[in-house]
Design brief:
Helix content is about 30%, strand content about 35%. The protein has two helices and five strands.
Amino acid sequence: MTEARRALGKKGEEAARVFLERRGVRILAANYACAAGEIDLIGREGEAILFIEVKARTSRRFGPPQLAVHRRKQRQIVRTAQWFLTERRTPEVACRFDVLAVDFVGDEPPRIQWVRDAFPAEGVGVW
């Protein structure tokens, strides 16, 4: 991954974090990593734990950012979420897998689309 792509990802994650916090989501972890993989943001909304993948783009040339969360990535996120829940000894709790698509266009503020329940734990895509 190039330094420019890494910087764009960090910028997108920060924009997503601010966006979510302004909407009442309490962030529990950022860039959670384990042997199963990595999840950009983990938050709590009401009683549900949210596992959030952030996709940032500067162009729609290759389609909307959320399309980059393909089935293999979905399965990796679900496995990582299971690891997080086991590690935290979290009892049965409602979980949701969301995607935040962050578009940066010129000097405008980022445009953010929040796709709630983007995919089920079984890893079947809905797009």
